[in-house]
Amino acid sequence: MQKNKIKILLLFLILLILCPLVFATGICQLDKEEYQPGEIATFFCYCNEGKEENELGYIVWQNLNGSILSSTSTSSGNCQDSFFGGSYLIPTDINFTGNVTFSENSNGTGEPNEWDNGDDIISDEFLVNGTNILRCKIIDITVPSFVNLGEENANIFKVTDATTGSPLIGASCVALAFSSDGSPILTEPYGKDTNFYKTIAEGVGYLNNEFFQERFEIDTTYEFKLYCQCLNNSDLGSVCYDDETGQRVGFKSCSVTGLFNVSGDDKRNIKSLDGKSVSIILGVIFLIIFFAIIGLMGVLHGEKIPLLYRKITATFGFAMAFIHVMILTSFIRSFYLNLDISITLTNIFYATLIISFGLGMIVLIVFTLQQLDSTDSQDNERYDKKRWERR
After folding, report:
1. pLDDT score recorded for residue 311
2. Residue 163: partners with Cβ closer than 8 Å, 6 or more residues away
3. Helix, strand, or coil here: 265?
4. Residue spans per domain, the chain
5. Helix or strand or coil: residue 157?
6. What confidence category does residue 223 fall into, taking pLDDT thresholds of 50, 70 and 90?
7. Do 212 and 268 contact (CB within 8 A), yes or no?
8. Separation CA 219–CA 228 (nearest Å)
9. Any idea which fold 25-130 has?
10. E strands along the chain, which residues?
């Protein structure tokens, strides 16, 4: 039985060692498997091991007959926390099968250094297969290649009917942004009076966001997905019209994926505690404890102190402790909501510190004197008692 336990423990330790090796891969993939002519295809990559970062290579789009459609130099960069890759505008006049590769050479051959083990996925295939009457297309996208955090950024696009090519008015669109671990960071629209953005004349739509979310990091590339739809249901407000004929077009859906990079300007008002703020917070916490102890002294010392003194001490101590709790709460709230009252709160804190310290010392002196008087009274009583006993 003991041997079996040892074997199980060894097996568990081996799995712990091997799991990082098995899953330490670089992965590249397309946003879709099938595209319509004129759509934008996006190929994105990420990794989970440091040695796969900052490796040079090429994003190469090819027709399966061997002809190269596009070849762009790239670097894997900080691929553990950031995407890298590229997009390709598919021609409008042909149907074909192709592939895209993160390769060592510009002709699509070779494997980049550290991306050559059996677990790395560096290529993907796609099919361009005509149009679909239930599909729309998102085209003419103008997304800033570099986004400044905390600054208004506008993205413009156009939605068209995949079959006729006519612009669609009234298409409902939403956008999402994802980090390299696949978790969503942003949904747009968010915090607005609508759940969708609507396309207007000529099928034009736009999105705007300030990118204030704290999870966005400087010099990092993220993935965005844009979804648009027509539901042919006036009750849901998602009816679309052909911009050229004025006719309702029925159900349509489409999506597009892209990458955007957050550049070096961070204009967000994200606060971090400085030394002065930490000192104030610690000082207020000390005063809360200090006055709470004074209040407890007035409650717990029984008959040693006259009732009036005990009530004054307890009331003063607990009241001052409560006041400082309110000061601490207000200071932290104003700090994180970026309210410009920190100077006022700081002045209140120092004024209260001086006043409360003085009053606290007075209470302690009164308490000490009372204790001494009580001790002297007890000594006098013992002395008088001994005198009477001698007589």
Report:
1. 75
2. 131, 132, 133, 135
3. strand
4. 25-130, 133-270, 275-376
5. strand
6. very high
7. yes
8. 29
9. Immunoglobulin-like (2.60.40)
10. 26-30, 34-35, 40-47, 56-63, 68-75, 84-89, 96-103, 123-128, 136-142, 146-149, 153-161, 168-169, 172-178, 184-188, 197-198, 204-209, 220-230, 241-242, 252-266
